[in-house]
Amino acid sequence: MSDKKKLTLPLLFKKAANHEQITWLTCYDYPTAYLQEQAGIDMILVGDSLGMTMLGYESTLPVTMEDMIRHAQAVRRGAPNTFVIGDMPYMTYQPSVEIAIRNAGRFMSEAGCDAIKLEGGEEMADKIYGISRAGIPAIGHLGLTPQSVSALGGFRVQGKGAAQAKKIADNAKALEQAGAFMILLEMVPDRLCKLITERAENCLIMSLGSGPDAHGQLLIYHDMFGLYPRFKPRMAKIFGNAGEVILNGLKQYVQEVSEHVFPQPENWFGMTDEEYDELIGSLE
User: Fold this and answer.
1) From CA 130, how far away is CA 41, in angstroms rounded?
2) pLDDT under 70 in the chain at which residues?
3) Where are the domains of the chain?
4) Are strands 216-219 and 204-208 parallel, antiparallel or unpaired?
């Protein structure tokens, strides 16, 4: 069990006030959550990205609330003192404020999450407002929003032009005014991220591929360790090529079993000659 103090919303704002960067990673399972808490990660996002990184879908759209709740429960058990955020999957909040509140509440009551995150700008402000009024901390997500990737023209930087950048900045202000305590900016230009961070009054701004001038950084765990072979995003630094280590280990296992190198005596359990003789006698 970690000696880490339970991280709360006031402590996150205190870190930002002290100009300390907030660390945020995705996580979808118990053992990884345990390691992240031991390492001192501030926040964990149980992201709908699990649809791609864990379930092998081509996008995040097929992910269900049941998928998210099950993975969030595992993460909470592995990281009891880390600030855990549940990512609301596609069409679990868009239809109505009532549906949004109900599903956000499931993350809190069934999985023990500390907050939820949803995608979208001003058009989602009523959902942010309703969820926040229900006593559930809410996070907005602007820029590249994977659930809308088709409408955005693919996985590409958002807000490079002045008009689109203004829209993102206006959306950030609308979400803050609706009650979002945090906004994730994904793949927007660094200067736009800095501007939105400077304009924020009671809202923390987090960067995913949007530069250093935010209150903290988010990375996809599988990207930073080379565990997602289909796609290697530019904004992700490889902190350790675990994928290569695992692949080499798997190949070695296949080789050693094929060549009768594994297992060795230290890898199995035996029985005494007397017990074995008694067994043979009982079978005759």
Assistant:
1) 29
2) 1-2, 149-155
3) 9-240, 245-283
4) parallel
CA dihedral 116, 120, 126, 130 (to 10 degrees): 0
**Three-state secondary structure call for residue 207:** strand
Please confirm, yes or no, whether 201 is among the known catalytic residues: no
User: Per the structure block, which two tokens stand in for 276?
Assistant: 């074995």
Q: How many CB atoms lie within 10 A of CB 169?
A: 17
83 vs 6: CA distance, rounded Å? 8
DSSP per-residue codes, 52-96: HHTT--SSSTT--HHHHHHHHHHHHHH-TTSEEEEEPPTTSSSS-
Rg (CA), the chain: 23
pTM (two decimals): 0.93
CATH class of 9-240: alpha beta
Closest CA to 84 of 18, 128, 137, 141: 137
Of 37, 58, 186, 198, the active-site residue reads 186
Give the tens place of pLDDT for each residue, 240-267.
Answer: 999 999 999 999 999 999 999 999 999 9
Residue 105: how many CB atoms within 10 A of its CB? 15
